[in-house]
């Protein structure tokens, strides 16, 4: 990735133009042709740097609810437990973290009852009992883009 | 309470939670599928964004592949009376991508969460110290991620969620 790629990524994360010919508009701002922008984005997708280009929606505004869960999984069972956890479509992010609570995942669903059902099913299928569920009390910031130009 | 979305709006969500085509007029085809004019679709997308229903429109990245290999969730134990001020302060840092107050548990006293990314752990640690200096030196710890087991965009309005999940593999 060069400096131009980083500028392009910052631009299309934060200010993707909602106009009829967005790639032409992006090109205008970066001094590239529409075709060059399309080719650069295709390459960044092929390289796995861009996961998706589209809308990022706010679950609560769509009537959905979400929560964060943390599990203490014995090291030998990580793959097997991850398979169960990840099998639920409402599990959108799942990370291993350096802590006794080593598996952290976010869960989205249409209501509280659904979240509780999924959590109960995960406990039942995995037998994991050390399980924290940590719902949000107050969101202060949800910025899902990453500043790539500020990197030193 | 969030307002109810119209069927057209739900269809917009269903379509744009997928991937925008890489062709000169990417919204034209979408508009046709939705039975809307191109201009009307663009106006509706802007309205959804203005209302905060769509957080943003654009690229979702795999930050590890983009060179931000260190990711830490910093959890803080802040007195209840201070948590709103501390949360707002943490959120004001450009480097903090997510900041939430969450419920505590007897075995988990941390109530304030800030997610940060950096190109290495040292950057995350330096940042954590700056954050600590800004909000007051409460008990905190950094939880680094060591593996990403799943990262997907949620797919809304795709099925009838009616029955509770029987769930799990098999």
UniProtKB/TrEMBL annotation, chain A:
Coiled coil: none annotated. SUPFAM superfamilies: Dimeric alpha+beta barrel, Winged helix' DNA-binding domain. Residues 61-141 form the Siroheme decarboxylase AsnC-like ligand binding domain. GO terms for molecular function: lyase activity. Keywords: Lyase. It comes from the Bacteria. It catalyses: siroheme + 2 H(+) = 12,18-didecarboxysiroheme + 2 CO2. It is an enzyme of class 4 (lyase). Gene3D superfamilies: 3.30.70.3460, Winged helix-like DNA-binding domain superfamily/Winged helix DNA-binding domain (1.10.10.10). Its EC number is 4.1.1.111. Pathway: Porphyrin-containing compound metabolism. SMART domains: HTH_ASNC. Residues 5-51 form the Siroheme decarboxylase NirL-like HTH domain. Belongs to the Ahb/Nir family. PANTHER family: SIROHEME DECARBOXYLASE NIRL SUBUNIT, TRANSCRIPTIONAL REGULATOR, ASNC FAMILY. This is siroheme decarboxylase.
UniProtKB/TrEMBL annotation, chain B:
It comes from Neomoorella thermoacetica (Clostridium thermoaceticum). InterPro entries: AsnC_trans_reg2, HTH-Siroheme_Decarb, NirdL-like_HTH. Pathway: Porphyrin-containing compound metabolism. Keywords: Lyase. This is siroheme decarboxylase. GO terms for molecular function: lyase activity. Residues 65-150 form the Siroheme decarboxylase AsnC-like ligand binding domain. Its EC number is 4.1.1.111. It is an enzyme of class 4 (lyase). It comes from the Bacteria.
């Amino acid at each position: 990735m060069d400096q131009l790629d980083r500028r392009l990524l910052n631009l299309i994360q934060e200010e993707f133009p909602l106009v009829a010919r967005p790639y032409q508009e992006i090109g205008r701002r970066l001094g590239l042709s529409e075709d060059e922008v399309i080719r650069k984005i295709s390459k960044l997708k092929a390289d796995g740097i861009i996961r998706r280009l589209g809308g990022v929606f706010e679950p609560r505004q769509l009537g959905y609810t979400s929560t964060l869960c943390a599990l203490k999984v014995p090291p030998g069972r990580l793959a097997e437990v991850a398979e169960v956890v990840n099998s639920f479509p409402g599990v959108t992010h799942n990370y291993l973290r350096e802590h006794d609570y080593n598996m952290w995942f976010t869960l989205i669903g249409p209501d509280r009852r659904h979240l509780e059902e999924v959590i109960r099913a995960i406990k039942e299928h995995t037998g994991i009992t050390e399980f924290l569920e940590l719902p949000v009390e107050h969101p202060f910031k949800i910025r899902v883009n990453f500043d790539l130009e500020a990197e030193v | 309470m969030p307002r109810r979305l119209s069927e057209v709006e739900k269809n917009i969500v269903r379509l744009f939670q997928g991937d925008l085509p890489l062709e000169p007029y990417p919204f034209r085809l979408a508009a046709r599928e939705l039975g809307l004019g191109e201009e009307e679709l663009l106006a509706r997308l802007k309205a959804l964004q203005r209302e905060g229903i769509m957080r943003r429109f654009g690229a979702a990245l795999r930050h590890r592949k983009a060179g931000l290999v260190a990711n830490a969730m910093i959890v803080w134990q802040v007195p209840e009376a201070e948590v709103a001020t501390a949360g707002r302060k943490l959120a004001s840092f450009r480097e903090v991508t997510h900041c939430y107050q969450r419920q505590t548990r007897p075995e988990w006293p941390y109530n304030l969460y800030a997610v940060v990314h950096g190109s290495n752990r040292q950057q995350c640690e330096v940042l954590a110290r700056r954050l600590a200096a800004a909000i007051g030196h409460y008990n905190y710890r950094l939880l680094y991620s060591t593996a990403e087991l799943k990262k997907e965009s949620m797919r809304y309005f795709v099925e009838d969620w009616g029955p509770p999940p029987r769930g799990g593999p098999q």
